[in-house]
Design a protein that fits this description.
The chain is mainly α. Helices cover about 80% and strands about 0% of the residues. The longest helix has about 35 residues. The chain starts with a helix and ends with a helix.
């Protein structure tokens, strides 16, 4: 059991580092867009996600591209918060604290943060893709990642319910003895 938790903790550390690097990359892109007005950075930051009707649509999107990068970096920051909460819950379990008082609430905060990230990211990408670039393929392109992250968040919420019930049973058991 401890080995499996260690593998999950290692994976979460990697996911947190990757999300931090991705957020920093988007903040650096936004900074270079706003300060230097690099058109290649604008094209790269937007063509990575969207396919507009014409390539000329990227030329005048300095403020839009920079704002998109900042909003996405903030969303990644919220995901990092949820992943760190989840990491700390599993770290406490790995250290032998199977049930503690705030465990259910901690799992619930982590799951809620991950679910909110999935929803907001899907809305951001689909809103920008569909309404700004008329790229309706974004709806289907973002769906698999949305569903995966959303379901992971739901599983963490189920874990929060199990942790709350486990704490209740633990308290009941201690009072009985």
């Amino acid at each position: 059991m401890k080995h499996h938790i260690n593998v999950i903790l290692l994976t979460l550390r990697g996911a947190i580092m990757l999300a931090i690097a991705w957020a920093i990359l988007h903040l650096v892109a936004a900074h270079s867009i706003f300060t230097h007005k690099y058109l290649k950075v604008i094209e790269y930051s937007l063509t990575e996600y969207f396919k507009p009707i014409s390539w000329n649509e990227y030329q005048n999107d300095i403020w839009f591209a920079g704002t998109f990068c900042i909003v996405y970096a903030l969303l990644l920051g919220y995901l990092i918060y949820g992943l760190i909460r989840f990491y700390m819950c599993l770290y406490n379990i790995e250290k032998g604290k199977m049930f503690y008082i705030t465990q259910g609430a901690d799992f619930k905060k982590a799951g809620t943060a991950i679910i909110m990230f999935a929803k907001l990211k899907y809305l951001l990408f689909c809103g920008v893709g569909c309404f700004y670039y008329f790229d309706f393929s974004t709806l289907k392109d973002q769906l698999p990642s949305f569903l995966a992250v959303y379901l992971i968040g739901k599983l963490i919420l189920i874990m929060s319910y199990m942790a709350e019930r486990g704490e209740f049973i633990k308290e009941e058991n201690e009072l009985t003895i």
